[in-house]
Amino acid sequence: MAKATLKIMLILLTFYSTYIEASWRDDHERGWHWYERDEEENEKKIEEIHINSTPVMSYADKLKKYREDGEELRAKAVMERTPESVRALMTWEKSMWNNAEAFGSMWQAVLRENPEFDYSVTHPTSQYSRHLYLDEQKKKVKLAIDALKKKYGLVFFFKENCAYCHAMAPIVASMASRHGFILHGISLDGSKLSEIPVSSTDNGLSQRFNVTMVPAIYAVDPKSGEYFPIATGAISEQEIEERIFQISEYQSSLGEQGKRHAP
């Protein structure tokens, strides 16, 4: 009896060992095949890291890439001259014009909703509106000049051998007379100009005003010594008036900081 029981147990053990061996060989998730599972997990992790670490292109980089693609297609079309390369270039250019048209439409829509960004509102381009704008500008320029002449006189620096000084002298004299400015000429070489009847030889004023080129026009307050340059070189009377207006607006925005004093 004992021998029979022992024999049955040996048979069962042999069957169980065979089953275990077969299961181990068929199961790749356990046993000596552990490295296959780890390799798969590592590949997934590496792929996730690569996706997460790939930098997102900025809009500027995207636009740059878009232009570079177009240049490459254009170069290829010119060099190859094949129907395929030319068609590819034409496709890219069509997309570019479509994008430009869409952007332009959006720009105009935003301007209609935000007129404060529309340059043509304050600087009209139509002929009728342009005349109105110029008339308003002339009024502003006249007001600026009228305000300036109450406090400041004009000083004109010149030289005898300066052709531009001779050309500018009658222009400055005419502008000063028309607007009622007191005009005084400063000669850097002791010469005289018939268009500038009141003048004197430079006694160091040009150095204090940092006059490095002539002709030069300065506005000077004789009471306080305040001064500022208006123009250097040969310009028209209208340009002188516009310079005065621009300087007036600029100094108004600066307040007292915009003024300079002669030592």
UniProtKB/TrEMBL annotation:
GO molecular function, one term: disulfide oxidoreductase activity
Location of the Thioredoxin domain: 108-249
Keywords, comma-separated and alphabetical: Redox-active center
Keyword Membrane: no
Alphabetical list of Pfam families matching this protein: TraF (PF13728)
Keyword Hydrolase: no
Domain of life of the organism encoding this protein: Bacteria
Record-given protein name: Conjugal transfer protein TraF
Originating species: Candidatus Berkiella aquae
